[in-house]
Amino acid sequence: MEKFVSNWFSVQSLPETYVFPPDKRPEKLSVPLCKTIPVIDLGKVVDHDRSDTVQQILNASQEFGFFQVINHGVSENIIDDAVSLFKEFFNMQDEDKPSVYSEDCRFFTSSLNYANEEFHLWRDVLRHPCHPFEEWMKIWPEKPTRYREVVRTYSAEVRELSQRILQMICEGLGLQPGYFRDELTKSQKLSVNHYPPRPDPSLTLGLHKHCDPNLITILHQGDVYGLQVFKDGQWIGIEPLPNAFVVNIGYQLQVISNGKLRSVEHRAVTNSKEVRTSITTFITPSEDSVIEPAEDLVSECNPPLYRAFQYKEFFSTYTACNGDTETALEPYKLRV
Ligand code: OGA
Ligand code: NI
Fold first, then answer.
1. Mean pLDDT for the stretch of residues 89-102
2. Is residue 207 within 6 Å of ligand 1 at its C-beta?
3. How far apart are CA 112 and CA 128, in angstroms?
4. H-type helices in the chain, by residue range?
5. In the chain, which end has fewer C-beta atoms inside a 10 angstrom radius, N or C?
6. Cβ neighbours of residue 224 under 8 Å, at least 6 residues apart?
7. Which residues contact 192 (CB under 8 A, 6 or more apart)?
8. Number of Cβ within a 10 Å radius of residue 190
9. Residue 13 confidence (pLDDT)
10. What's the pLDDT tens digit per position in 8-47?
11. In the Cβ-directed half-sphere of 96, how many Cα atoms lie within 13 Å?
């Protein structure tokens, strides 16, 4: 069998290692598509509406841990370029896309833990760091030939958007301006998930339930449905909106906000008809940065819920527990 699902999905019957046990399967694929996950219009951030937008972002981050943004300032052209670039990438012949470009730039199926995982995920992934691009660009794929140029522009524009959103979160939380600049957003990773169609999608999962380990995530899911969020005891689907980005709170923002903003479980389901490609940007602290509840958000009546830790410490325990949402934050919780 070929390694990458995108190479054999249409010709093979489903191997057992891809069949999730019933309690982990997406029991209902057609969960309600949620129109209640807030869609926030960033085009309205002119002076008098700014505080209203800030409040919407804060409310959504508290209640859902997720929101979508429209009129976000990332140009439609560059989004279209990125979408068509990745389509071309995943359609290339295998010899044009090696699995290891370098230690930090990988093309893999399911997860980097493929050899040890019990069930494989129905996806192929291209992942690499993208900021600062001068440092990383040389390890990015060279094919398709416009790869570096397109990804560089796309990543820079999404970075700029992430900084604007973080600045508004900063205002909403009452932190000093620029709190998230520098170390807390030093790194940026691009992870492109490619989920081929599957005749029996209810047996498989594209991505199992998890919360993101980083600070904040900006995801372009295009026009094919597949992302589900856990809310009030049930899975709800995030409606694909053309040209919107889905934004979600990572574990580090939950800790820094002392639990005020929530990092919420989500997963990706596959479908029987169309390939789905999501372009994910993870905004991530530097390895050595110290993460702790912001001083301004703790007090005697609001004691810290988490101890201080270095991001690399968190990342290694997160990886060791395989992102398990029950245990990922356990080593860092303070009993109050
Ligand atoms: C992720 C993620 C969702 C999707 O990559 O962390 O949650 O829709 N992706 O691909
Ligand atoms: Ni995620």
1. 88
2. yes
3. 13
4. 5-8, 47-63, 76-91, 133-136, 147-173, 251-256, 311-320
5. C
6. 240, 271, 274, 275, 276, 277
7. 86, 89, 125, 126, 127, 277, 278, 279, 280
8. 23
9. 78
10. 787 767 888 888 888 777 765 556 666 679 999 999 877 6
11. 11
> Tell me: the pLDDT tens digits for 203-241?
889 999 999 999 999 999 989 999 999 999 989 999 999
Does the beta carbon of 212 lie inside 6 Å of ligand 1?
A: yes
Ligand 2 centre distance from Cα of residue 38 (Å): 18
| Among protein residues, the one whose CA lies closest to atom 5 of ligand 1 | 280
What residue type is 37 in one-letter code?
Answer: I
Mutate to test the pocket of ligand 1, among 227, 246, 271, 284 (most ligand atoms within 8 A of CB): 227
Which strands make up the sheet holding 227-231, listed edge to edge? 33-34, 234-238, 227-231, 266-268, 207-210
pLDDT surpassing 90 at residue 99: no
Q: Is 227 in the pocket of ligand 1 (CB under 6 A)?
A: yes
Max CA-CA distance within the chain?
Answer: 62
DSSP conformation letters of 239-286: PP-TT-EEEEE-HHHHHHTTTSS----EEE---SS--EEEEEEEEE--
Domain boundaries of the chain, sorted by first residue: 5-292
Tell whether ligand 1 has an atom less than 6 A from the beta carbon of residue 194. no
Is the CB of residue 193 below 6 angstroms from any atom belonging to ligand 1?
yes
C-beta of 247 in contact with ligand 1 (< 6 A)? no
| Cα–Cα nearest to 164, from 12, 49, 8, 53 | 53
191 CA: nearest ligand 1 atom: 5
Q: Specify the residue with its C-alpha closest to ligand 1, atom 10.
A: 278
Altogether, the residues listed in the chain come to a count of 336
> Separation of 47 CA from ligand 2 center, angstroms?
32
Q: Whose CA is nearest to atom 6 of ligand 1?
A: 212
Q: Which fold has domain 5-292?
A: Jelly Rolls (2.60.120)
